[in-house]
Each structure stands twice: as C-alpha cells, then as structure tokens.
Amino acid sequence: TWYRIQLDFCTSGTYLNLSANQFRLTVDNSTSNIYYFEDINEVNKIRFESGNASKGIAHIDAIGYTWDQYYNLNDNKNEVISYPEKTNVQFVANCSDTESDLPSLRYYWDFDDGTAGWGKYTQHTYVTAGVYVVNLTCKDDNGITDWYSKRVFVHNKYPNIINISSSNSFRPINEGETILFNAEVIDDESDISRLAYWWDFEDYNFNPYDTSNYESGGWKQSNIYTDDYSGYANIIVKDPEGALGYKSVLVNVSNVNPLLSIWDASIIANISFEVYRNSPSYNGNFTFDLLESLLY
C-alpha cells in the first residue's frame, strides 16, 4: 500500500539535480534513481498535465494529484469549496423544519479559525491558507438542534514573478562591473510588503527549496562578477505562509583581456671621462655640467 508519490521532473534546462527530460519519483519516503522520459514505455491508470510548467514537483495520492506540497492525504476525496485567502466568503444556511418553527430557527456558525458567526446568512474572511471544517448548528424554539459540516479549502496565492530584468539585458557586461537586477512580483496586496527574497547569481545545483546557501536581499539587487560567466541568475520569492516562486534570467559576463601599461620610467647610466692637462705641475679643481638634453 502506498500513500503518497512525489514526482520531480524537468523538461528543459536544469532543476534540482535533474537535467532536461529527466525525472525522479519518491514513494512515501523512498526515492528512486533518476530516469529519462524515454525510459517510460507505457503509463497505466494515472495521467497528469503540467500545463505550461517545464519543471517542478507534482504530488499524487490514490485519489488524485495536486501541485500543493502542503496538502493532506485524501483531501480531494471529500467535497470541499475552495477560495483564495483573504476572500470574503458568503455562507447561507438551508434548514428544513415545520412551517411554524422556521421563523424561530437560530443559526450558529463555527469557522474553525477561532471565530464564529450567527444568522441564516453570514460571511467570513480567512486570512491564512489551510483546510477549515465549517460547522453549522441549527436550533429551534424547543431547543432541538441539528448540525452540518463542510470543508473549506483556502488556498494561498503563490508569489508570481512575472519578470526579471538586468542591466546585462541592455548592454554587454565585463567582469568586474556591477550588474543590477530587478524583479517584478505579483501577490496578494497584504503580502507584497512581507515577501522575502533570495538571489543565486551562479546557477550551480540551484535548489529553490533550500535558501540557506543564497544571498538574502530585496526585489532589487546587484552583483559583481569577478570572472567571466555565462549562465543564469535565479531569484526565490517566499510569502509569510511559506509559498514560494522562483525565476531565472540569462547572464553573460565577458572576459577582459590583459592590458599592459607603463606608469613610470627612469634611466640609469654609467658615465666615464678622462681629463687631459697641458702642464704636469698644474694643480686645481674642475667641474663639469651634464646637460639633460643629451640624455634623450
């Protein structure tokens, strides 16, 4: 009996330690080797579509599959209603009773997040993503009660990085120069100011689920490449609930050829001379001037 499958896959570029057209399966806590898509001859009974995703993780159980790594086993077996977080959800109670008792019915709502509501019609806003069991209790004027429960799945709006631009996109960059990076991110308005950013400037074994080795920063960041580089710079964005998004931008840093220059120069020379005197008995001192113009 298996309970949960995680599928890591990559159709282009690199993802985790996967290359293009490779995948890996984890069944419960047991992880397979890395395989190529062409190793699969036939797949029976299960099929999933990645949409436009070329790399990522899918989670599968016996009931279905989901892209949400935080889902609970068999969540999709039960009937749920789903809303984005921070959405004003409208609730309507439908309770049958004798016609004479209908006007006196009282309704009590438990929204499973520490808050409650009253009345046949009510509304509630869930500020945090999760699966909530909403309980409705109905009581008539004789104190007779009945109750009904329904699960509400409140999903987090994941950060969506719509674009990364860099100064390298507009002009060639040489090693030793500063590259400016700028990320544009869409998320819930209340989360934008609370987003956390990490940058990976060299795409070696990039793992968006482990930020410990990456540089923490903001939506604007700069980096100096001390050597030539051709590859990707990556950004990871995570919201307060832990949902993350990531994106890459191509970077090309050119090598700078050595440049020889002379800052200063001096001349060292040995000068020899002879002195001839007409009279052997002549005694005295003599001087001479070495003209600077003679050195050039």
TrEMBL record:
PROSITE patterns: PKD
Species this protein is from: marine sediment metagenome
Protein name (record): PKD domain-containing protein
Gene3D superfamilies: Immunoglobulins
CDD domains (alphabetical): PKD
Domain PKD: residue ranges: 76-143
